[in-house]
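dumping this here before i forget
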Amino acid sequence: MAETRIRFGILGCANIARKVSRAMLLSPNTTISAIGSRSLDKATAFASQNHFPVSAKVYGSYGGVLDDPDVDAVYVPLPTSLHLQWAVVAAQKKKHVLLEKPVALNVGELDMILAACEASGVQFMDATMWMHHPRTAKMKEIISDQQRFGQLKSVNSMLSYVGEGDFLKNDIRVNPNLDSLGALGDVGWYTIRAILWAHDYELPRTVTAFADPEYNESGVILSCGASLNWKKDGKVATFYCSFLSNVCMDIVALGTKGNFRVHDFVIPFNEKVGSFYAVANSEWAELLLGCDPEPSEFKIASDLPQEALMVREFGRLVEGINKGEGEPEIKWSIISRKTQVIIDAVLASLKNGFVPVEVVY
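structure:
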């Protein structure tokens, strides 16, 4: 029996929506029912250029999508400053919400979004795609293996890229009125999520921003980093995020018995295979001429791109709720909120002279 196709509406024509709309068409249990933009011409062109089904409706407003009875769920790739308004309205209209990251400007805004979703009984999920790749599950298996990995001691994550063309002047991610979190919200979200994921979402006790972050003339963060401290078992973590450095997407996790590293955790170099390296019980080779054993490369195949796996999982959850067979999966709300809490703590440390900030959930 064919799976029920959850009908998505898309709010806006952001560039990332090209990738996610492709995923909706690749996923076996989702489709695109509507798209809305402030410009009807723009929405029409977007639907055509991205091969939407001929049945997909096109609206010259976001509200048109939310009022459409043939839309089960919405994907919201709008600028972060608009998330609170439109995610809350979507939830109130009983539409399930797949929200681009960063999900909000601060945890107070996110709490209002989550409260609206809970009140309406709709599913919330942020669009952090790498969480859904089968490689991520395999890495978690290794990091959780006490015999091979031991106790987690340190995680370092980095994500950077240099925006093309006039990115640093005109992209929404450097506009204080649209995405005031800048690099911290865009690429920092991933690095912070990687650290929390490695720690089974146990929050650190303190966050301390690194000195000398870089800002544009409008005060938007272009690069920054921070250290996270659990104040137990010697566990620490660091991250760096930037719009000013060459592409880098690394996680390095160190345990008392092993370690692993991945060089493309956000966007796999090959969408069909995700690789990473891990090693256990390393020792120096004779005369310190190397290490034994050498790290092993793991290659994890995926039948669908990670973004399609994300929307497939979201669609599965939505179908269960719509059929009365399940409740919204709250783990996604919890994970999003913890990520946002750390972003807020980094901002507080940046604004207060790089002092340690206590993490309050």
